[in-house]
Amino acid sequence: MEAAAQWLAGYDEQLARTAANAKAADENLRRVSGSATSPRGEVSVRVGPSGALEAIELTPAARALEAEQLARLILATAQRAQRSIGAQVVEIMTEYLGDGAALDFVQRNMPAAAGVEEGPYDEDDYFANPRVVVR
Asked: What's the maximum distance between 2 C-alpha atoms anywhere in the chain?
C-alpha cells in the first residue's frame, strides 16, 4: 500500500511540473512577435504569435512600385517575419520539450520559406528578378 501511495505522490508531482511548464510555455509563446522590413524600406510588417499578419506599413516609395512588384515585396517581407516567429517558437519549445518527437512536430508546423531566400539582396536586381514564388 505504501508503494502505491509513493507512486501516486510522484505522479502528482510530475503532473504539477508538467502543468507549470505548460503554463510557462504558453505565457512565453503569447509574447512572441516578429517584424521585418523590405531591403529598401518600402514595406514593414508585424506578425503575431501565430504568424498572422497584424500590421503592414507602406512608405511613399511603395507607390512607385507596380502592383505585382508590391505584392511580391509584401509577401516576401511577411514570410521573413513569419520565419522569425518560427525560430522563436522552436527556441521556446526546445526549452520545455527537449529534443524528440514533440519538438519535431513543432518544427514541421512552422511557416515554410516558400521559395524566399535569406541573405543580402542585390538592390539593382531585386525587382527585375524577384526571389519569391507567388502561388
From this structure: 79
**Computed from CA positions of residues 33, 53, 115, 106, in that sequence, does the dihedral angle turn out positive or negative?**
positive
pTM flag (> 0.70): no
The secondary structure of residue 32, as a DSSP letter, is -
Mean pLDDT to the nearest integer, 79-102: 87
Residues 6+ apart with CB under 8 A from 126: 39, 40
pLDDT band at 24 (very low <50, low <70, confident <90, very high): confident
Distance CA 87, CA 80 (A): 11
Q: How far apart are CA 76 and CA 113, in angstroms?
A: 9
pLDDT for the residue numbered 22: 85
